[in-house]
Write a structure and sequence with these properties.
The complex is a heterotrimer of chains A (about 200), B (about 130) and C (about 625).
Chain A: E1 2-6, E2 9-13, H1 19-25, E3 49-53, E4 62-65, E5 76-78, H2 82-98, H3 103-111, H4 123-131, H5 145-152, E6 160-162, E7 169-171, H6 186-190
Parallel strand pairs in A: 1-5
Antiparallel strand pairs in A: 1-2, 3-4, 3-5, 6-7
Helix pairs in contact in A: 2-3, 2-4
Chain B: H1 5-14, H2 16-23, E1 28-33, H3 36-40, H4 43-57, E2 62-67, E3 79-83, E4 89-91, H5 96-108, E5 117-120, E6 123-124
Parallel strand pairs in B: 1-2
Antiparallel strand pairs in B: 1-3, 3-4, 4-5, 5-6
Helix pairs in contact in B: 4-5
Chain C: E1 6-11, H1 14-17, H2 21-34, E2 41-46, E3 58-61, E4 65-67, H3 74-84, H4 110-113, H5 131-136, H6 141-149, H7 152-162, H8 174-183, E5 206-211, H9 220-227, H10 229-243, E6 247-252, H11 257-272, E7 288-293, H12 303-310, E8 334-338, H13 339-351, H14 353-357, E9 367-374, E10 380-385, H15 390-397, E11 407-412, E12 418-421, H16 431-436, E13 445-450, H17 455-469, H18 475-492, H19 500-514, H20 518-522, H21 525-543, E14 558-560, H22 570-574, E15 580-581, E16 589-590, H23 600-604, E17 610-612
Parallel strand pairs in C: 1-2, 5-6, 5-8, 6-7, 9-13
Antiparallel strand pairs in C: 1-3, 3-4, 9-10, 11-12, 11-13, 14-17, 15-16
Classes of the chains: A alpha+beta (about 200), B alpha+beta (about 130), C alpha/beta (about 625).
Chain lengths: ~200, ~130, ~625
């Protein structure tokens, strides 16, 4: 039997678990965006970062993504320290700066106490939400869920990620309608910001 | 051809002169003076004799090199032998036979062949 | 086999080749034939000597005479004077700056004499296209020793005792990494983390050489592959035996055509000799290597992205754990090491762990290859023992700063690193000390800077690089570096605001904490260290809209000093936008509205009349 401690509460476990799985069993909520329980974890959005330390070195904690980090015996996890909340706010501010119109991002941000014209933003938040250059409007947060679901569930590979870095985008092959698409709608179903829609052909 | 471990050593043997030229630290250095005077009096033959002797002896710490005129043109062919840690010795009026003796006694044996030498370091031999 | 009296080692590394080294070699061969010296003098083209700014280079063995900056025109005179008349040619030798006397012998030249070569032992000494020369200087002896006299566990222990750490930048103990992979159990379901208790299967393990070398200005790995590809192959063979792998990959940058050519040839020659393939050296050990080319993505230097690229997938980092040692290429246990790390292995086996660990410091053993470039007199590739100070590298080996300028900083670790200012010049170069100073060892890039370098521009340059190369998977790197770049560009254009320095510091810290892989984790480093040591430059840009180093184009003006201007019209004639007006022998004037700050007038003026403020 292994034991993990999250926010002061112990959980005993035998099977392979991620920190997110363990937190769910303890009914501790950790926000996620690129996570879907039916798909292999991705670790890309970084909103689920939590502090984790081993029993041997409790003061040397690191920020790890809860959706991918395996729960280990003796691990001590904190999901609501100032360090964790700071990093969470930073990530949501980056998303808000990228997708200011997205309802889902706005409400997630509001839950975390981040308002675009808010008074309690730190210097980074102020910059990201008020001064940063505006870009072409999009609600896509590049979580990759649509790409991953199409690969792993219907296994049609009709969507992929094109370009690198800030120019990255989700697209079917050669930006045309994918021949392999079967219109199952999984991509639209998993999209956290409802950016993908399914149309009649 | 697929090598066995002993074949590696055979290749090394075959390439011995290459490794000697490229890597040798040189316990002994033979400097044959090849100025115009030297060449005119047969220094090239002296050079080749030294080269052959070194090759035949299989020594891998003896360097053979050349340099310009040593200044004493009447006594060419000349060679300067430098054993590590000892003063250099200038040999004069060399012939292939004298070279053989110098190689055996000085370079291999460590004893200066006084009758062929002009000077040891800066001293003159009487 | 020649009774050659001279071996002329002509450097044929990329630098020298692009400066016509092959033409120099052809001229040498022609002159030697002309004087009928072919039986006495052998001309060999070797790999890179490391002194690349001074090429084409030739070293005369056995005398160790060093010739540099050779042209075809120099050759007839050189052959006649040195090889016929025995008088080495002084004007073609290396003369230190501020000195009149040349230094004839290579080992006396401080650039070379102060180095200690392990990974680069054979550089400039052998023809990399001839496996026999590698064997002549002791090559493949370590492999023979390992296959006939050592068990895999003994090999791993030797590497561990030696204290070799990964030379690609992370500095992870190599022996430990090998041990993880050797002990990794191969699971049936290779996508699941962990193991199912199956016994290890040698056919299911891989080793990889990371030859992607993406840091701008870094060419350590290129040099090793071009000059001594067999050192890499021998190291990989030994590693494969120790770990239990039967196949290896070399992932090499597509931008290294000469290295790729030499590597391919070396692989063919090794196969011919049965040093790769089945039953190597007549033992039961079988191993072969295939080569894969990169296609221009810096992120592929990150091990899991590299594996992704090898598998034909998108090159983006994967979550760890599982680490490649447990689940790497195709889900199988995989060990990845950098070129330089592999190249050290045969030496450790040949000369022993005790010898290797006697070099370097307590925690950083052995030597490291650095590319010493920028504002320094002797630019090139140097291999030095760990623990040598930065000062010794820059001044004793590098020969100091040219043109009487003053040292300002040295950037180590490329875009992941930081700058070391003058006050820290006595920092010993080892993994821990560099981290304490705020930088990292990285793969070994060292860019020297003088007062003419603007530290804000340095930060902007590196962030623009990491920004372009970011794979885009994780939010903080993809979005965060883009924002940092915008802020830095504004500052360098005079649009910075009060508070921007604190903004950069805080954002940099957040990005470091939250990014997924090393690219993002370290991208803020150049910004954070330049702020730490050169805050005043940032403040000048922001508060005074001034660039103290005179570099940031938006903040400088070029003007002509009427006191010095002679009206020679050189500037006006060379101005690409024709914005300089003036009559002959009259003071010229630059039209500030049209000036594009290219600096052409400054470089053609012979009267020191162009002022940059």
């Amino acid at each position: 039997m292994a034991k993990i401690n999250i926010d002061g509460r112990d959980l005993e476990f035998e099977e392979q678990l991620t920190i997110l799985d363990a937190a769910k069993k303890l009914q501790i909520k950790i926000p996620t965006l690129c996570y879907n329980e039916h798909l292999a974890p991705y670790g890309g959005c970084r909103i689920c970062l939590v502090e984790a330390a081993t029993q041997a070195a409790p003061q040397r904690s690191r920020l790890v993504p809860a959706c991918t980090a395996p729960a280990a015996d003796g691990m001590i996890v904190v999901t609501n320290s100032e360090r964790v909340l700071e990093s969470r706010r930073f990530i949501i501010e980056l998303f808000l700066s990228r997708c200011p119109e997205s309802e889902q991002i706005r409400s997630m941000a509001a839950e975390m106490g981040v308002q675009p014209d808010g008074q309690n933003l730190d210097v980074v938040g102020q910059y990201l939400l008020q001064r940063a250059p505006k870009r072409e409007a999009t609600n896509c947060i590049l979580c990759g869920l649509c790409v991953r679901v199409c690969q792993q569930i219907p296994e049609r590979f009709a969507l992929s990620l094109k370009e690198r870095g800030i120019h990255r985008k989700v697209t079917p092959p050669f930006e045309k309608v994918a021949e392999s698409c079967i219109g199952c709608g999984s991509c639209a179903y998993v999209c956290p910001t409802k950016t993908i829609t399914v149309e009649e052909a | 051809m697929k090598l066995k471990p002993e074949d590696l050593n055979k290749i090394r043997e075959r390439m011995k002169s290459t490794s000697r030229l490229r890597e040798a630290e040189g316990k002994a250095k033979i400097n044959v003076h090849l100025g115009t005077c030297g060449i005119a009096s047969g220094a090239r033959e002296i050079l080749h004799t030294f080269l052959e002797l070194v090759e035949a002896s299989g020594a891998d710490d003896v360097l053979v090199t050349t340099s310009g005129c040593a200044g004493l043109c009447k006594r060419e062919p000349m060679a300067t032998i430098e054993i590590a840690g000892q003063a250099p010795v200038k040999y004069v009026d060399l012939t292939p036979e004298k070279v053989k003796k110098v190689f055996e006694e000085h370079i291999k044996g460590g004893t200066v062949v006084k009758e062929y030498a002009l000077a040891v370091g800066s001293e003159r031999l009487g | 086999m020649g009774n050659y009296r001279f071996n002329l080692l002509v450097c044929a590394g990329t630098g020298c080749v692009s400066n016509n080294a092959f033409k120099v070699k052809a001229a040498l061969e022609k002159e030697i034939e002309k004087h009928k010296l072919q039986e006495e003098i052998q001309v060999i083209s070797t790999g890179c000597n490391g002194f690349c700014a001074n090429g084409p280079i030739m070293v005369v063995k056995p005398d160790d005479i060093f010739y540099q900056l050779l042209t075809e025109e120099d050759i007839p005179g050189l052959v006649e004077e040195h090889f016929l008349k025995g008088r080495p040619v002084e004007k073609l030798m290396y003369t230190p700056a501020k000195d009149e006397h040349p230094i004839p012998k290579m080992s006396d030249i401080p650039f070379f004499g102060k180095q200690q070569l392990i990974a680069l032992s054979n550089r400039g000494l052998i023809d990399p296209e001839n496996i026999d020369e590698y064997i002549a200087l002791g090559g493949y002896q370590a492999l023979a020793k390992v296959l006939t006299k050592m068990t895999p566990e003994q090999v791993i222990e030797e590497i561990q005792t030696a204290g070799l750490r990964g030379r690609g930048g992370a500095g992870f103990p190599t022996g430990k990494k090998w041990e993880f992979c050797r002990n990794a159990l191969v699971s049936e379901d290779s996508s699941a983390p962990g193991n199912n208790g199956n016994s290890p299967s040698a056919a299911d393990k891989y080793i990889i050489c990371n030859a992607d070398e993406g840091d701008p200005g870094a060419f350590m790995d290129r040099s090793i592959v071009e000059s001594d590809p067999h050192a890499l192959l021998e190291g990989m063979l030994i590693g494969a035996y120790a770990i239990g792998a039967t196949h290896g990959f070399i992932y090499i940058r597509g931008e290294y055509p000469l290295a790729l050519e030499r590597l391919t040839q070396a692989l063919e020659q090794a196969r011919e000799y049965g040093l790769l393939g089945d039953e190597i050296l007549g033992t039961g050990f079988s191993f072969d290597i295939s080569v894969s080319k990169g296609a221009g993505a810096f992120v592929c230097g990150e091990e899991t992205s590299l594996i992704g690229s090898l598998e034909g997938k998108l090159p983006e980092p994967r979550v760890r754990p599982p680490y490649p040692a447990q689940s790497g290429y195709m889900g199988k246990p995989t060990n990845i090491n950098n070129v330089e790390t592999w190249a050290n292995v045969p030496h450790i086996i040949n000369r022993g762990a005790a010898w290797f660990s006697s070099i370097g410091t307590e925690t950083s053993k052995g030597t490291k290859v650095f590319s010493l470039v920028g504002k320094v007199n002797n630019t090139g590739l140097v291999e030095v023992p760990m623990g040598i100070t930065m000062r010794e590298i820059v001044f004793d080996i590098g020969g100091g700063i040219p043109d009487g300028k003053k040292f300002k900083a040295v950037q180590t670790g490329g875009p992941s690193g930081g700058c070391i200012p003058e006050s820290l010049l006595d920092t010993p170069v080892d993994y821990e000390s560099l981290v304490q100073a705020g930088s990292i060892m990285g793969s070994g890039g060292m860019i020297v800077m003088d007062e003419g370098n603007c530290m804000v521009e340095v930060a902007r340059y590196f962030v623009s690089f990491t920004q372009q190369e970011s794979c885009g998977k994780c939010t903080p790197c993809r979005e965060g570096t883009w924002h940092m770049l915008n802020i830095l560009e504004n500052i360098s254009q005079g649009k910075g605001q009060e508070g921007d320095i604190e903004l950069l510091e805080k954002m940099g810290r957040y990005i470091k904490e939250t990014a997924l892989c090393g690219l993002g984790n370290t991208a803020p480093n150049p910004v954070l260290t330049t702020i730490r040591y050169f805050r005043n430059e940032y403040e000048a840009h922001i508060r005074e809209k001034r660039c103290p180093a005179g570099v940031c184009k938006a903040l400088i003006t070029y003007s002509i000093d009427p006191e010095n201007c002679t009206g020679c019209t050189a500037c006006a004639k060379n101005c690409p936008v024709a914005c300089i007006s003036g009559e002959r022998k009259q003071t010229h004037v630059i039209n500030q509205e049209k000036c594009i700050k290219c600096g052409m007038c400054y470089s053609v003026c012979n009267f020191d009349a162009v002022r940059v403020r």
